Amino acid sequence: MRYGTGPEVLREVTCTLKPGSFHFLTGRSGAGKSSLLKLMYLAHRPSRGLVTLFDEDIATLPRQRLPFLRRRVGVVFQEFRLLNHLSAFDNVALPLRVAGVKEGTIRKHVDELLAWTGLGDHTEARPPTLSGGQQQRVAIARALISRPDLLLADEPTGNVDDALGVRLLYLFEELNRMGTTVVIATHSESLVSRFKKPILHLEDGVLIHHDRVEAKDGTADPRDPRKQFGRGTKQ
Amino acid sequence: MIRSGRTDLPLSRDPSVRLVPWIIGLMTYLACLMLAGSLLLSEMLGQWTNGLSGTVTVQVLPQEQEAPELLNERVEKLVRILERTDGIDEVRAIPLEEIAALLEPWVGGTASLDALPLPRLIDMRLNVAAPPPMGELKTMLSNADPGALLDDHGIWQDQLADLVIALELVAGFIVLLVGLATIGIVIFATRSGMAAHQDVIEVLHLIGAEDGYVARQFQNLALTQGLRGGIIGIAMGAATIWGLGYAADHIDSSILPQVKLLAWHWVVLASLPAVTALIARSTARRTVVRSLTRMV
User: Fold this and answer.
1) DSSP code, position B87
2) Å from A71 to nearest chain B CA?
3) Which of A122, B113, B222, B266 could form a disulfide with B284 if both were Cys (CB 3.0 to 4.6 A apart)?
4) CA distances (Å), origin A95, targets A102, A109, A119, A196, B214
5) What is the mean pLDDT of each run of 10 residues along chain A (235 residues)?
6) Stretch (H or E) spanning A30
7) Which chain B residues touch A142 with a CB distance below 8 Å?
8) Is residue A18 packed enough to be buried (19+ CB in 10 Å), middle (13-18) or exposed (0-12)?
9) What pLDDT does residue B53 have?
């Protein structure tokens, strides 16, 4: 993968993620973690190679079908990317609204999720009036509201203290147990060693090692193709 | 779907939102005046054509030092001949007072007309279904009176029609330019809005918004702005037309034709805000969708 006509930022990346798996994505700054996540949440297409998501080749998938795939991916951005002019409620409701869900259903689900994340008393608060930790929980709630098959988080513990970081990881682990495939990009070695999950490690755009989980025939687990991320080569 | 009144993009807070309706209003105002002018010209031409086609005029030129009584006799003779001619429904010798009134704007009061050797006029209304051949009518008149000249207004009508058509084309061209300028303004405002809210658009895009979802937010705003601008423009246009009409009513002149906008003309003009709003909406949508296709 490359940005425009610049140098390749990802190459020799070959991995398959099993549906329902949990991976840490590690590497130094500039190693390509965010770029790999961008491929996964369809902000970019690969300049060469093969990337499949939910059994679709994202390099050749018609552009008008990409939004439907994106709705199956929840993303917690590094800088949260909340919409400051909208309330916490409207931020969390956004993925449902773009998917055309009815307002009554949205109200019920968003209120439930905000209460679950401890933000029940801040539903009408604008993000700038919330603390960093609260903003992060809004961002996580927005990523989870549509019950994604794949959850991606870019440095989700980067802006919170260690205790909250650990609690967040337990939350992601819980989601993973419920069947969501999780990939978390992080610098934090303490979190990685504490949670003992498979690691995708990038160095200078190259995937150095990963824990490959495959079905017996060597392909990715075909049991639930809806929850399948990645099968093939990213270069 | 976007609920009515709720938008994900804070477009209504942009400075351009306050300015755009006024610019669209100005454009609509110009379009309204051009359109009204064009409709008035069409109406005027129609009235002239309906009034003149089917009518011909005979000029009876006075001979040197001819007594008015003799001239009257020549006119009466010609009227009798014409009344017997097939294809002519009505013949009327125009009284000298009417001729004097027609000339008054150019030569002043009737007192000074006595000294002028004025030609006498005979108006004829032809049977439009079976008019007499003009050539034969001319020959018949010149045989009856060598000083009688037939004017079928053909040249006058043709020149008038050419002038009106040229003016209508100019008006149409100006309306087209105004329309293009409006489209340009909406494109500029939409692109500015997209640039100002690129981060929000990106988030919407990444959480699965289709192009139409993002476009709807811009097109709804453009529709409102177009409608507001259109109403401003048509209100100013109506006031101007009313003012001009009022002024024209108070000019005592027989030169100016008495033409007014008809009810259906006002309906056409009243549709301008809706047309402007739809053009703005469609332009905004196309602009957004075209820009978004550059994103993955």
Assistant:
1) T
2) 5
3) B222
4) 12, 12, 18, 31, 13
5) 81 87 90 91 90 91 94 92 95 95 94 90 95 89 93 83 80 90 89 87 83 42 35 36
6) none
7) 207
8) buried
9) 64
CB of A104 within 8 Å of a chain B CB? The answer is no
- CA B26 – CA B31 distance, rounded (Å): 9
CA nearest neighbour of B31 among B160, B138, B176: B176
Half-sphere exposure of A202 (CA within 13 A, CB side): 30
> Which tokens hold the place of A43?
């902000």
- Record: contact B208-A68, CB cut-off 8 A: yes
Instruction: Judge contact between A21 and A213, C-beta under 8 A.
Output: yes
Residue B97 touches partner A, C-beta closer than 8 Å: no
Q: Report the chain A residue with the minimal C-alpha distance to residue B294.
A: A63
Contact A70 B1 (CB under 8 A): no
Three-state SS letters, chain B: CCCCCCCCCCHHHCHHHHHHHHHHHHHHHHHHHHHHHHHHHHHHHHHHHHHHCCEEEEEECCCCCCCHHHHHHHHHHHHHHHHHCCCEEEEEECCHHHHHHHHHHHHCCHHHHHHCCCCEEEEEEECCCCCCCHHHHHHHHHHHCCCEEEECCHHHHHHHHHHHHHHHHHHHHHHHHHHHHHHHHHHHHHHHHHHHCHHHHHHHHHCCCCHHHHHHHHHHHHHHHHHHHHHHHHHHHHHHHHHHHHHHHCCCCCCCCCCCCCHHHHHHHHCHHHHHHHHHHHHHHHHHHHHHCCCC
Q: Write down the ipTM of this complex.
A: 0.84
The alpha carbon of residue A144 is apart from the nearest alpha carbon of chain B, in Å, by 11
Neighbours of B286 (CB within 10 A): 16
Question: CA-CA distance, A47 to A25, in Å (whole number)?
Answer: 21
CA-CA distance, A50 to A183, in Å (whole number)? 19
Subunit contact B203:A83, Cβ cutoff 8 A = yes
DSSP 8-state class, residue A160: S
Identity of residue B223: L
Determine which of B6, B207, B216 to mutate to test the interface with A (most A C-beta atoms within 10 Å).
B207
Q: In chain B, which residues have their Cβ closer than 8 Å to the Cβ of A68?
A: 208
Task: Work out how many CB contacts closer than 8 A connect A with B.
Answer: 55
What distance in Å separates residue A66's CA from the closest CA in chain B?
A: 8
Which residues are A57's β-sheet partners? A52
- CB within 8 Å of chain B, chain A residues 140-159: 142, 146
Q: CB of B61 within 8 A of CB of B119?
A: yes
- What is the token pair recorded at B267? 């309906």
